[in-house]
């Protein structure tokens, strides 16, 4: 009887571990797909921005490690005075709001960009930037 109970416990543990591994793999696959979609969405930004540290362009600062950075927070980029006056830190929530309606959050910044209506596209882009 004791041996049978031990076999049942071992089998249940193995099933539980396999299910947990499958759930982790599924979550990783979804994260990878979201990141890939975000990389595709970055096409909207690439004319003015890079995701490589120190690679500012004439039109925009690099976006490497953007989350947690203060707006106008790079010493090696020349921001407008209007943008320098805004006290803001790039969080996921702030970035989502800016991506949705950029001119409402930070007037006079990135004027050609009018926003992204799709919440899914914004979340994908944020996942991509977060992964840099």
TrEMBL record:
GO terms for molecular function: electron transfer activity; heme binding; metal ion binding. InterPro entries: Cyt_c-like_dom (IPR009056), Cyt_c-like_dom_sf (IPR036909), Cyt_c_1A/1B (IPR002327). Keywords: Electron transport, Heme, Iron, Metal-binding, Signal, Transport. Residues 1-21 form the signal peptide. The keyword Chaperone does not apply. Residues 33-132 form the Cytochrome c domain. PANTHER family: CYTOCHROME C. This is Cytochrome c domain-containing protein. It comes from Alishewanella aestuarii B11.
